[in-house]
Amino acid sequence: MKALAGFIFGGKKQMSTLTMVATLDEAREATGEIRASGTDMMDRRRHHISSGNIVDISRIPGLNTIEANDRGGYSIGAHVTIDATSRHQAIISHYPGLAMAAGALATPQIRWMASMGGALLQTTRCWYFRHEAFHCYKKGGNHCPARAGDHRFGVAFDLGPCAFPHPSTIGMVLLNYGAQVEIDNRRNLSIADLYGDGRDPRRDHTLPAGEVLTRIVLPPPLADERASYFRAISRARAEWPLVEASVRLVIDPGDIITFARVAIGGVAAIPLRLPHVEAMLEGKPVSDALFARAAEAASEGATPLPMTQYKVQLIAGAVLETLQRAYRRIWGGE
Amino acid sequence: MQTTINEKQYAFETLDTDETAVDLIRSRCGLTGTKLVCGSGVCGACTVLVDGTPMVGCLLPAQQMEGKAVETVEAYDAENLHPVQRAFMAHDGLQCGYCTPGFIVEGIAFYKRWRVEHGLQRPSPEQITDALAGHLCRCGAYAGIYAALQAACAGEFDAVTETHTQRVDALEKVTGAARYTTDIQLPGQLCGKILRAPHAYARVLSIDCTPALALAGVKAAIPFPGQDSVVRYVGQSIAAVAAVDEATATAALKRIKVEYEILPHVIGIPAAMAEDAPDIWRGHRREAPGASEGFTLPGAWKQNVRTGLLNMGGLRPARARQLVAAAKDKEGQHVIESRYTNAIQIHTALEPHCAVAHWPDETQVQLYISTQAVTAVQQQAARHLRLPVENVTVIAEHVGGGFGAKHDLYDEAIAALELARCSGAPVAVIPLRPEEMSLGGFRPGGYFDLKLAASSDGELLALVSHAYSDGGVAIGNITSALTAMGYSGGARDLRDHDVVSNHAPGKPFRGPGGTGALWAMEQAVDQMAHELQLDALALRRKWTDNENRLKLYDWVESLEVWQNRPEVGSQNGRYRRGVGVAFGQWIYLYDPEATVQIDAGPDGLVVRCATQDIGNGVRTTLARIVAEVFTVEQTKVQVLIGRSTYPHGPVAGGSRVTVSVFEPAERAAHLLRDRLFGLAAETFDLSAAEIAPGGIRHSAGLLSWMEIMPQIPPQQVSIKRGADPQLVQHIGAFFTNQMGMGVMFGQGLAHGAVVVEVEVDILSGKTRVPRVWENLAIGRAYLPDMARSQVYGGILQGIGYALYEEKVFDHATGNNLVSNLQDYHIPGIGDTPEMFVEFTDGGLEHAKGQGIGLSELCTIPVAAAVANAVYNATAIRFTQSPLTPERLITALYQEPNRNAQA
Fold first, then answer.
1. What number is the ipTM of this complex?
2. CA B826 to chain centre
């Protein structure tokens, strides 16, 4: 089904199309930016950040469920909302860090609307990118105005020419869960590969145009996992994180950490897992001192920009808070 | 696309590519209760229920409404009120009402979920915060919203049919029926847009609008009137177009050809004060706009710095400087010397600056406008259009917030007037949120170089306060005097400097100059007390002779939270609790011309006044006064305001509305009541008649006013407030007598005290404000419930100033970077403290009505109290606002000594 609409561009009356596709094949054939729930895109379009054709995939069936998969884990359809993810019993029981993060991000209305697929593939929240007046790598330009400008919300690990962190909380948590994404119902890609190494400033993810992220594939759950999520923000609620952290721990009856996963977001062009911090934790008995050392190590290798020095300390604070919450099984959030 | 909206089936053959639910609901269905504010899904004003689930209509693609059942606030109209709406009315969960429809539909959805899951339990504030985190209210009505939702969920409004309401217009606001300027849809109305300059400083060489006119659907395209051929800030109006729809108007703007000669620009004080900085007003200094209300005091320019010629401290400022210099080396004397820096705060009214103009014929115009100043705008529009004043009708029935930014005939209104005249059709000009955030005005930032000298026993020796204000291209900041106004004694050197640079003009903002001045002074006083090892109140007592102020000191001392405050720097844990105090004072302004007219006739009691309700509640004030005199319900009194054809009303600025209309309204009501009594007694030949609650008691029973009015000739009483009796000549009266603009300086000051409790998390850098106590000595709070609501809002805006709000520029281009509500952080519902508000009566008996304004006073000392509380908690003196996690973390860990003083 194709809905045509008048759109005027560059002074010439042109037609920009909105195509409501019903299958993945139609999505591949259509040209335009793919729209799921639209929570990211419609903001950009209203404020003249993005234009051109839209390919709406919200009517592709079969992507709206959370189900056990044949790998012993669970699969989350791309259309499943963030809210549904946060409330799903299996997710809460088996992947508590994901449920917590999904319940804590954005606002209730956004969580009810926004899809998990869209949450992974959203575009940067950089205030230069989202300003009509600025050109940048992500708009087809060849420089980053934030570098010479005001980048107080920028990266603390400087991986590539784009100075703003990746916005996806869900991506950061799924990285910490070792999840994969399924593309076009066919091939799988790890979250790490979905985001690449952060060196290409033009992209928020590596998915080629026309390909549709169809599912999130979670590995088998761990028994008795303790997890938490925390974001540092200035107000009580509803703010993009200055720094965020996800922690997963398994602790044996002798209080020895047998498994640890730590990831941080809001600090680099991609979400970061911190294997060296995990290695510090695994095999050690839980102690305040251990958590403090691990938190301090979390910012190791940070390369803050002139205005993001504060994030180095904030990373330690966020990781420490998340470790403590995970250990004490405190349901997380802001 | 087929969808159901409020149980009505709709089918739309074509949709625009970018059309969203809120666009469709508002313009195609005419359901204007749903508001478009941020367009980014942050503020929740556009929230609608989709199959029962709240969603933000600004991000929901219209196509995705296919097959859904959508509910807007209009589904719950006056005949069909939901308990949540009744609760909002009773608990005053609203002020200007612009955000209210969003809160209502979200609240209804929450109520329904809550009932299923928890029955009649009372939700905790935390649970309400979680549910309502996607809504913003700039007036700060959150305290009422919490109370309303708790009561509604607990079933307190389930069986209610007779609705108690604090505000007389609450019913319109909770049902979405209240019409704001953005909601005006006249037949044939066009969409107007303004072309904004992309450069911070440039010469305009030529403007060619003809290519825009050639586009189908474009009805007018004009160079912006009054454009003086130099652009001095990004966003300055260059041209304007009117077209059949928004997409066409946007496309037309792109076709206008403008040639610029780009000039090197400067942004902010340091750059503007550099020796090689371009002198941006050179040759045009008289054209610099004013950032203050009313008049601009004389000043002398040197490059981009304009220094006030009056030293507000008096005739011997050099003495103050000498005393400070001497005190530094003198045994037994102390000096506090620091630079206190203020961020720029954006008003962020949820209804943007907008206007709809309609010319019924070539000599008459109707201007619907979101304004705080119906009468002033009428005069300015008449002057601009060269029309007799009476040919211009200004209408502002409901106004979605102002806070000082909507006093003038702003560019959106000029564009609407000109485009409508040119095209012959009504034109609406409603900017997008980025335009509003960048150009809608702001509270100037800047810094104070402040020096305070005192003797060891606390005698105030000298105050040197030099203010440097950043109001963009605007001038006329009067703020150094506000540092000194609260205290007596000592020599003073008070200087104001405007430092102009290439960004949009600042505008008055609720207590102009006051928040920054107190941020500096009240912190300096606090620090002085600390260094002298004197109690903060004991020190202030030595500098105070005002009775009302002294009463406030007593009140603070009586508070347990103050008595039990921690010692500075006594805490080492992660969460550090602190208690801080600050005091403020504000001038007393009123409008002696304010006139209230009351008619009694077949329609009952009708009050008219050309003032406007921007959330301040004057509609309720007028109704309540008249209702109390007649002992009838306030909803029985019809109040007609917001139209320039009514008798002269005060501008909603300078805290002057209530103090200007209360006394004449009360006097008029008494006069009218006495007249009705006499007429009725005569007409109906009543014996033993006397005025009684609700009417006239006589030998045969009670005759109600409502029965009397239709049976006697219509009566009208009109009362002008007039000036207060002048006790002594004072300098303020001198200035306002020169102004002759419906404003008068009254005698005396309003004083306020605020005590703030903070909790600083040194791990995440977050500062929370759990509780605030505020006491205002304003003579008398006319309507304490309405006054309290305003104070709650003032406290919230003060917290925003202290902790979150900052306009940030890209210096390379002059663009505002916080152009949306994701990046510009105003307080949300979760940032609401528990608030304890009191009023101290008396001391201002000379004012007609015995009470003076509070709207500005209630907000200006709050930020300083927050900073003092953070000092109490952390022993770090934060001189720069706002106190974000970034600044806290930096001060705590990276530059631990930078901000600390001794």
1. 0.95
2. 13
